[in-house]
Amino acid sequence: MLFLPENVSFxxxxxxxxxxxxxxxxxxxxxxxxxxxxxxxxGVWLSLGGFxxxxxxxxxxxxxxxxxxxxxxxxxxxxxxxxxxxxxxGGPVLMESRFTAPGERLAVCDSPAGRxxxxxxxxxxxxxxxxxxxxxxGAQLLLVPSAFTVATGRAHWEVLLRxxxxxxxxYVVAAAQAGKHNARRESYGHSLMIDPWGEVVARLEDPLAxxxxxxxxxxxxxxxxxxRMPVAEHRALGRPAVLQGAAAAAQAHxxxxxxxxxxxxxxxxxxxxxxxxxxxxxxxxxxxxxxAKMVARAVASALALALxxxxxxxxxxxxxxxxxxxxxxxxxxxxVRIENxxxxxxxxxxxxxxxxxxxxxxxxxxxxxxxxxxxxxxxxGPRMVRELVARGKELGFNTMRTxxxxxxxxxxxxxAPGVFSEPALRGLDxxxxxxxxxxxxxxxxxxxxxxxxxGIPEYLKWAGTDQQVDFYTRDDIKGWxxxxxxxxxxxxxTINGRTYKDDPTVLAWNLLNxxxxxxxxxxxxxxWYDEMAQFVKSVxxxxxxxxxxxxxxxxxxxxxxPGQPYSEWAAEEGQDFIKDHSSPAIDFATIHAWVDNxxxxxxxxxxxxxxxxxxxxxxxxxxxxxxxxxxxWVTDNATxxxxxxxxxxxxxxxxxxxxxxxxxxxxxxxxSAFKGALxxxxxxxxxxxxxxxxxxxxxxxxxxxxxxxxxxxxxxxAVQDLNKGPVAGCVPAQHRAAPTVSNDCSxxxxxGEAGTGKEGPACDVPINECVRGTAVCDPKxxxxxxxxxxxxxxxxxxxxxxxxxxxxxxxxxALEALYWNQPQGLACDAxxxxxxxxxxxxxxxxxxxxxAVGRPDGxxxxxxxxxxxxxxxxxxxxxAPDCEGFVINEVLQQCFLKREQCPSANFxxxxxxxxxxxxxxxxxxxxxCGHWMSYYRxxxxxxxxxxNITYTEPDxxxxxxxxxxxxxxxxxxxxxxxxxxxxxxxxGGEPAAPPQPATSSQPGSSVALLEPVPPVQAQxxx
Length: 1022
Description:
Blueprint: E1 2-3, H1 15-21, H2 30-42, E2 46-54, E3 61-68, E4 74-79, E5 85-87, E6 93-95, E7 108-111, E8 114-118, H3 127-136, E9 141-143, H4 150-168, E10 171-174, E11 178-182, E12 185-188, E13 192-194, E14 200-203, E15 211-218, H5 219-228, H6 231-252, E16 289-296, E17 336-339, E18 342-345, E19 348-349, E20 352-356, H7 360-365, H8 381-394, E21 399-403, E22 414-416, E23 419-420, H9 422-438, E24 441-445, H10 456-463, H11 468-473, H12 475-489, E25 506-510, H13 524-539, E26 544-546, H14 577-580, E27 589-594, H15 603-621, E28 625-631, E29 635-640, E30 643-647, H16 649-668, E31 674-679, H17 709-722, E32 758-759, E33 765-766, H18 769-772, E34 781-786, E35 789-794, E36 798-800, E37 805-807, H19 809-817, E38 819-820, E39 832-833, H20 870-879, E40 885-889, E41 894-899, E42 914-918, E43 924-928, E44 933-937, H21 942-946, H22 965-976
Parallel strand pairs: 1-2, 1-16, 8-9, 9-10, 20-21, 20-31, 21-24, 24-25, 25-26, 27-28, 28-31
Antiparallel strand pairs: 2-3, 3-4, 5-6, 7-8, 10-13, 11-12, 13-14, 15-16, 17-18, 18-19, 22-23, 29-30, 32-33, 34-35, 36-37, 38-44, 39-41, 40-41, 40-44, 42-43
Subcellular location: Secreted
Catalytic activity: Random hydrolysis of (1->4)-beta-D-mannosidic linkages in mannans, galactomannans and glucomannans
Main location: secreted
């Protein structure tokens, strides 16, 4: 493997020259194409340390680290996160942020040398980045391509590199630019390779020369060091204390110490001013010792290249939508159908490879939070959907399975029989349109046995019954189901104008996910499937239809069933694999495999399960069969049937290796009816499971960086090979979809950016860019939707134009000094809630109206909607003119703005909050959620706040702590003496909502707090 330095292809005199030669990665520009060809021709992996990638706008580029495999494909990309800004008097002036946009994600990838953790130059000064790469993402080699200045290099280069190696117990490979590039720029050079013990194993001493240095990567040595000194294990044990300490320290040191700003002061009310503007995958190692090279270069001019070859690789977190009229993938305008036992699209074979995702309707609709797996930080649901399907296509997948309905009550797609939520259904519109543009087909389930919202439990609730058999036999319930089906298949997509039943993006409909009808007469489920399959075909003849069941065999004694030979539980659930799929209106068979839930964790059992169904599908049903869901959990705390069950990541990895080996063999077998597998479930980077599943990847979540992802990708490549070439005797024209009529809405785009302005067949549907994730605002700015587009406004206490916001240390320091808090103190009176400003941190648009669900009228405007820190809560209070303080729970990261809370009754330290949720196995899970505390502005109207408060505890006399008020009196005195003239509260802002008494949601607490209704914990595994 060859490692090249930062700015590998060009290093000019100024950033303008760099902007001029910046090129896209997807599709690749000529420079990247040339490198791809070189890698493929030489059979060598390349690390291009810093590549000028076209940025989010014409004035910015990305400094992107690109890794290319020996096959000429892009294996990973990383956009530099930390930008280097320096202006030394009499020395160098480098302001990278003026022309470079920062990245947002970390990146790792597997290579023959081990797992690579990507970074660029200035990142070296931020050890937490490398600790994340090594300890959380499994990196073994940390790549630090650089162009260090001479001054900083001489002082810090080697010591920082060795420190990163020692801290993480990784190899560090640092290819560096060397020598004088032009009249204005000289680099330090001194390329180094350092082993996990901190010893330099390769070095280029001459700082003025280019050269090559070679060293061996000894992964056995790395493992030995990590075994003898298990730093990763000790780090994990120490993290709780470290993080708690860090949180406390952050409160005390949120900004550098500085004096307050200057502005006019107001009597008895201080004013603060702040100017808003400025003047990773599995380890794959062929041998224990792998040869690696690093190169130091002195680059003075751009490379002029004329190339023909193409190299397609993964996108690195692109922020923008493709154009609305984006072209579908080849075959995308044909409905998938079955010819001679083969799935085909057009005339191309279509064996399935892909994944299951949860809460896609909610995410597409812009839900502010998800329950099964969180939204990544600073990523909206629509953006996550867009990036997920695009990434799926890049990795070689062709199919995603999900639900056509929402699974959370506050986001319900159907709130009563025949009553549908238009905002929620627009999430399904977006999912279909983004999948169409990416070239991903969708299997959509109309309903599910498990989900309380949108599933059988809700239909039974509407009917006032708890008998499972009623869902399958009662005419009214079956009528409601048919009404939902008709509403879905006849819906017209508000984005692209296509009726769902005419959209070939839909591969197939699942009638009912994982039916259950225990104790029902034999054939009940099969009769329902037949009736509803015929109905779906009558209203939508274009799409395939299947069941969505696990595939249990009917009673009795079938040895393929889970539990055999000791139990008949599977045969008693109401399913009958053969009968359920015998209807002529059922096009193909489905099976699922939940080896942990079923206590069948031997991979050989899974192989036998698939083989049995493949044989019956081929010989009895004469139909294809697909493994629609399968997964292997990771848990150290599970009990099933009174039996303790656990599984480690390593056990999952081994299981997935064996499982996908069997899957690939069955797919390749001549005449096989087995036509694909979809795993459960793929987590986007930054998604985390709920606390009921332990957070992180939870039970079944799989990150792209997990070792278990490798056999999944290998399966995708195998499927791509199987899908090459047409199917004999195919006549495609009869299954071609009618073309869409979609106007060009580019005239409505904001600054020429796709995914902004308006959309729809008539270009008359406004896009909320803040929700869609197409607004380009600084993370410290509020995104404000407008009729014409959107604007970005820096938070109070930050300076900039909204696209870039920098902290104003003096303003933030003065703001911190303006608040008083008694440690662990909570106001005994509820006070009055103040509406949360839309331009403050913690605000989110709520297109589904979920914050108002279950709350009094108007209460949806109270409280933070996104996670907030203590500083963010202070900033929000500053932006709300009537705010006199706030209550905050720093564990929940929630805050409510307040007025008229009396600080002399601030001693109601409440009990620790307990959060409850239901885990995927139906159990109630409780976990601590911190305490609420009150913070008061020192310039508040104490007299008014305390005039009507008399706090009485049971069996005790009324009490207060009047000494507290001296703190506020002292502040007023300083203000009167002029000491507070640097503090000025800006006028304007949003008017406060009419005052409403808050109510307590903490039983037994004397404290009255209006808390948000916690989201319903949906099952994250059916």
